[in-house]
Design brief:
By secondary structure, the chain is an alpha/beta fold. It folds into 2 domains: about 180 residues, ATPase, nucleotide binding domain (Nucleotidyltransferase, domain 5); about 180 residues, Nucleotidyltransferase, domain 5, CATH 3.30.420. Strands 1, 2, 3, 4, 5, 6 and 12 form a 7-stranded mixed beta sheet that branches. Strands 9-8-7-10-11 form a 5-stranded mixed beta sheet, sandwiched between helices. Helix 1 packs across helix 2, helix 8 crosses helix 10 and helix 8 crosses helix 11. The chain is globular and about 60 Å long. Bound molecules: adenosine-5'-diphosphate and magnesium ion (MG). The site of adenosine-5'-diphosphate (ADP) has 20 residues, from helix 6.
Length: about 375
């Protein structure tokens, strides 16, 4: 009998943790059997951050980080196997997203579009004994796409509903939306920053890794002039397909805009403005779609201040936590990579050209056979 258990591994731009989802994927659907987060040690986090920003990179250090992350991803898989009492031989495949070091898919910015994820899959297959699928983004880029976002096809498979126009809003470090018209996927793109600027601003000024519940943002008020300036970035004005990351939206981008404004804005008001920026850039991007329902997932679903703003701006669209559709907000991205590996192993395409802009559907990822 064909194995139906798949493990998805995801470590996003927030660098909060490695997400591990043990899923059952079959023709009739996908369900999460168990989910765990595996810690990313501080030294790894800071190495990833350094590589993401530096212009000059020591090749040997990068190659070493590739191995370190491969080992860490393996430990994450072994951890979920141990606590669920499954054996390696029970698992059909691991879908490993890898850690993004740089994402530069736009041909207008570089003649050599690329997206680089590391965490050596050879190590994962050797240490776990489980066939591993990795390198999901580059085939789509080679086919003329952005290589991102890849989750819309999964959202379509599990969250579409006949006769309903639904928006799935994933708020990780960056935010992406999936537009579903009945069972049809009609769009999917990155809207801009999700939690990333909120995390960075509160870390810089209060030394906290994130704004729990959005309480700090909620304690301030939005600066209209700054918001207008931030929203005038041409990224927000472009239609999809489009994808982005910390190469564009980072503290330098924020500081440049603050300097242009020349005002001394209280720190907490800047946090409120950043929360409003995430909410408005999402709502502006989906306003024409006139959805019946919107569902929020990703870590941003825990930020009540942000959710409150989204509910206000998306009205009259009904806004719910994705839990309403049977999945926990934090499980979805890792579950998506379990599903992507299921598709690859079965020789099925899983890219969505409507969201990435590629020339056509492709079977994504490379298979490292156990
Ligand atoms: N309780 C919370 N309150 C506010 N924000 C939260 C909370 N829990 C998680 N987050 C936000 O979610 C982020 C992690 O989201 P995640 O979907 O894992 O992003 P990524 O895919 O980039 O790793 C954290 O960095 C933080 O900003
Ligand atoms: Mg995360």
């Amino acid at each position: 009998m064909n194995k139906t258990l798949f493990i998805g591994l995801m470590s996003g731009t927030s660098l909060d943790a490695i997400d591990v989802a043990l899923c059952r994927c079959t023709e009739s659907g996908t369900s999460v059997i168990d989910f765990q987060t595996h810690p990313l040690p501080e030294h790894i986090r800071s190495e990833v951050t350094t590589f993401s920003h530096s212009k000059e990179i020591d090749l040997e250090l990068l190659a070493a980080l590739d191995i370190k992350l491969g080992r860490l991803f393996s430990e994450a898989v072994l951890g979920i196997l141990k606590s669920t009492s499954y054996e390696s031989s029970d698992i059909a495949a691991i879908g490993s997203h890898g850690q993004t070091i740089r994402h530069k898919p736009n041909t207008d910015e570089t003649a050599f579009p690329f997206s680089l994820q590391i965490g050596d899959p050879n190590i994962i297959v050797e240490k776990t004994g489980i066939t591993t699928v990795a390198d999901f983004r580059r085939r789509d880029i080679a086919a003329g796409g952005q290589g991102a976002p890849l989750v819309p096809a999964f959202h379509q498979a599990v969250f579409s509903s006949e006769k309903l126009r639904r928006v799935i809003i994933n708020i990780g470090g960056f935010a992406n939306v999936t537009l579903l018209d009945g069972h049809k996927l009609v769009g999917g793109f990155d809207t801009g920053p999700g939690n990333s600027l909120l995390d960075k601003w509160i870390m810089q000024h209060l030394g906290l890794p994130f704004d729990s519940n959005g309480d700090w943002a909620n304690s301030g008020s939005v600066n209209g002039e700054l918001l207008k300036k931030l929203l005038s970035d041409k990224y927000f004005l472009r239609n999809g397909p489009k994808s982005t990351g910390k190469e564009l939206f980072n503290l330098t981008w924020l500081d440049t805009n603050l300097q242009k404004l020349g005002e001394n804005i209280p720190k907490k008001n800047i946090q409120s403005t950043l929360s409003e920026l995430t909410a408005q850039s999402i709502s502006l991007a989906v306003s024409e779609f006139n959805a019946h329902e919107a569902y929020i997932c990703g870590g941003g679903a825990h930020n009540s201040d942000l959710v409150k703003r989204l509910i206000m701006h998306l009205s009259p669209t009904k806004v719910e936590n994705i839990k309403k559709l049977g999945f926990e907000a934090d499980h979805i991205e890792a579950a998506a990579f379990a599903w992507l590996s299921y598709r690859t192993l079965n020789g099925l395409a899983s890219s969505s050209p409507i969201s990435t802009g590629a020339n056509g559907e492709r079977i994504l990822g490379a298979i490292f056979q156990a």
